[in-house]
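Progress report, Aim 2. The chain analyzed during this reporting quarter is listed below.
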Amino acid sequence: MKSEGFLKGVLVGVCLMFGSVMIAMLIFFLFFKKPRYENFENGALSGSGSSTETFEAFADKEKYILNTINQYFYKDKDVSEIYDDVYRKLVDSLDDPYSYYFSEEELKSTMTRYDGEYVGIGCIIGQLDDSLELICTAVYEDSPAKKSGLQPGDIFISVNGTDITGMDRQTALAMLKGEEGETLKVIVKRDGENIELNITLDTIELKTITSQMVDETEKIGYIYCISFNAHTTDQFKAAIDDLEKQGMEKLIIDLRENHGGVYDAAVTMLDRMIEKDKLLVYTEDRNGNKESSYSEDDLKFDKPVVILINGNTASASELFTQTMRDYEKATVVGTRSFGKGIYQGLYRLGDGSGLRLTNGRYFSPKGICIHGEGIKPDIELELDEGLEKIAVWKRTEDNQLQAAIDYLKKNT
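Predicted structure tokens for the chain:
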């Protein structure tokens, strides 16, 4: 009888211990097991093994921390507001100034620059160094700004009654955009007098190319390229055609202050200048994989060329300059360029945000990578002191441009 009671006691004890373990496991999974993060709709992961496990652990930890903040932080806080900061800091940890995380709005703004179209007034806006006031430096032809009477040198005072003179640059610029057909009441200061303009917004094709003849006697043409976007190549080709119709025999290409832009636009511009079947550029990623681009256009440009550069000539504009120099197609005048010889890829995420990540380096036909070095001009010449502080100056005041004109007169 005692053995029977002992056996019953053992069974009861085992059952209680098993039940306790099950309850403990249930509590753990309910309260401590962290949920998995779902992938973005087009963000499938690559890799396997420990790298994937590491990513999953990171994603789990991130969501657990954010959920804990949402539940226990002493102030009410919309956790969604800090997601962008979390992702931005993650990409910033790569310690690469050219890799970015873009929020949805930031990506839209970036794609506007790349696509080359936006709804706005149609002018180039600079900022005065001393007062930080916004100033019109150029007006696009056939634009709302042109039709309203806006002129280069006009200083923006207010938009729809809101004073923008002390406003953050990006906020002020946003006020000059809106819906197509919307009319803005803009006050500008011209020669000390305030002038009211009514500007109706329209779709604007960003003008990255302007051109003119700068010396009728020597038949010297001039093309200014401010950046590279989806329309730049067509604008560049049209500018060359127009100048050639005017009898151009020599050409100055101005890439000063050109920070780059769409890599492919620089390559297709080179295609117009270099004879067919020539290497234009090649890229190399971290694994040593190379990809080359060759000229395909039957046209080429055999007239003398001078390219103007300065310390803000960067990336795609340096690629254009170095390849032209490699083929002895141009003489370079100005100051040493910026030195950005790496390229980036843009990756859209399923929620509308995106990443821009550096993918590798690019090289000129002679195998030159200008990253960190820049391009040393054939003729080094600083811009005259004080001119860089002036938003708009006369062509005759530009000593670097005059040096390019003089070189073409004397040496070609």
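Confidence is low (pLDDT under 50) at residues 6-49. The first strand starts at residue 100 and ends at 102. These observations will guide the mutagenesis work planned for the next reporting period.
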